[in-house]
Amino acid sequence: MTRSAFFGNLDFNTIASNPEFKESAVRSFIIDPLIKKLGYTAENIVLEKTIQIQTGSKKQTTPYYADYVLKIGSSFVCVIEAKSPEKSLSENSLIDQAFSYASHREIRSN
């Protein structure tokens, strides 16, 4: 499949330089169409899945939210974190965020 098959005439160079194209737009115009083209339906998409992560020495839990968690059957198979175009996807903190969600005991994506 080609890029246009997934995204139509969406100009990635234009959106990358558009300060109004934020994370919510990435979800609507890029991630949502891609997930649908891959065959996922509402039944196998969990939006903003809450996971509890222990923080601090008192072992308090803090809720975090994985933007998308995809399922096949009852198994979670993929975590997708949406970011605005101004963020560099090679930032270690962003990679660590997605990895920590995917490897969390409530998700454990493979």
Word description of this protein:
With 110 residues, the chain is an alpha+beta fold. The protein has one domain (3-103): Alpha-Beta Complex (tt1808, chain A). Helices cover 34% and strands 27% of the residues. The protein has four helices and three strands, in the order αααβββα. It has helices spanning 3-7, 12-16, 23-37, 92-103; strands spanning 45-55, 60-72, 75-80. Strands 1-2-3 form a three-stranded antiparallel beta sheet, covered by helices on one side. A hairpin with a 2-residue loop joins strand 2 and strand 3 (75-80). The radius of gyration is 16 Å and the shape is globular. It starts with a helix and ends in a 7-residue tail after the last helix. The mean pLDDT is 86.
Identify low-pLDDT runs: none
CATH class: Alpha Beta
Oligomer: single chain
* Average pLDDT, all residues: 86
CATH-defined fold name: tt1808, chain A
Count of helices?
Answer: 4
The general outline is globular
- How far is the N terminus from the C terminus? 24 Å
The amount of helix comes to 25-40%
- Provide the CATH architecture: Alpha-Beta Complex
Q: Which strand order does the major sheet show? A: 1-2-3
SSE class: alpha+beta
- The number of E-state strands comes to 3
Keywords:
single chain; 110 residues; alpha+beta; tt1808, chain A; 3-stranded antiparallel sheet; 4 helices; globular
